[in-house]
Amino acid sequence: MKILVADDDPQILAALRILLHAHGYEVVLARTGTAALDAAAHEHPDLVLLDLGMPGLSGVQVIRAIRGWSTVPILVVSGRTESYDKVAALDTGADDYVTKPFLADELAARIRALTRRNVPDAEEPVVRFGDVEVDLARHRVTRSVGGQETAVRLTPTEWAFLEVLVRNPDRLVTRQYLLDHVWGPGHANDSGYLRLYMAQLRKKLEREPAEPVHLLTDPGLGYRFVPGARS
User: Of 25, 29, 55, 108, which has the most beta carbons under 10 Å away?
Assistant: First the structure.
């Protein structure tokens, strides 16, 4: 698997190259936004690790350009910690965001999450987590309780909310994306909807709604569906 690492700090580049090589990845390095975009086009990486503050093109500009022709996973690794920067990168098309300094194990886990395939293909569009099964083709949700399969009734809005999350496993889905996708344009300030419907989904699908392990909140940013966690 090939990973493109774009950062203007030579020490960060060296550290990431060593870390990624140790995990068996092939690494391509870029020190400017322009070089990162060129490498993304010609090296065909399986994942892009990208800093936001680079010369030439900014990280956000690189994300926007890549998203014009590719769905390659993009993981931002940046020293910028403000919610504004995170939301801008994620709304532009980044799949996840890690702040510097980062833990090597956490970064490796984020990479694995972005590159593994959790959603079944079109021939069997069924997602399972905990005791829940989501059939995307049939718009049907069931839970196995005491060995008995029970249908879970969701409202159309609850289904739309859940569908976005389960189609993006282990990825942060921003509040803005959810509001636009589920409720449509003009609801940018209606984040109360998200809290309400997430609470309803947790009540119906989590074993312990007050301590969710599959339907998680990234404070200030959005929500994340984690299918691999154990209830």
Answer: 25
The number of beta carbons lying within 10 Å of the beta carbon of residue 189 is 7
Q: Write the class of the CATH domain 126-225.
A: mainly alpha
Contact between 169 and 107 under an 8 Å Cβ cutoff? The reply is no
Write the pLDDT tens digit of every residue in 110-148.
898 888 743 444 444 789 999 999 988 778 899 987 778
Q: Which of 150-155's residues contact partners 24+ apart within 8 Å by CB, and which partners?
A: 152/204, 152/205, 154/201, 154/204
What residue spans define the domains of the chain?
2-115, 126-225
Q: Which residues of 38-55 are buried (b: 16+ CB within 10 A; e: fewer)?
A: ebbeeeebbbbbbbbebe
**Closest Cα to residue 97, out of 63, 56, 61, 57?**
63
CA proximity to 162, closest of 182, 148, 147, 143: 182
- Report how far residue 224's alpha carbon sits from residue 216's, in angstroms, rounded to the nearest whole number: 5
pLDDT tens readout for residues 158-198: 888 998 899 888 888 888 888 877 776 665 566 778 889 99
Fold classification of 2-115 is Rossmann fold (3.40.50)
Q: Report residue 2 as tokens.
A: 């090939």
Strand bridging mode 47-50 / 2-6:
parallel
126-225: same fold as 2-115?
no
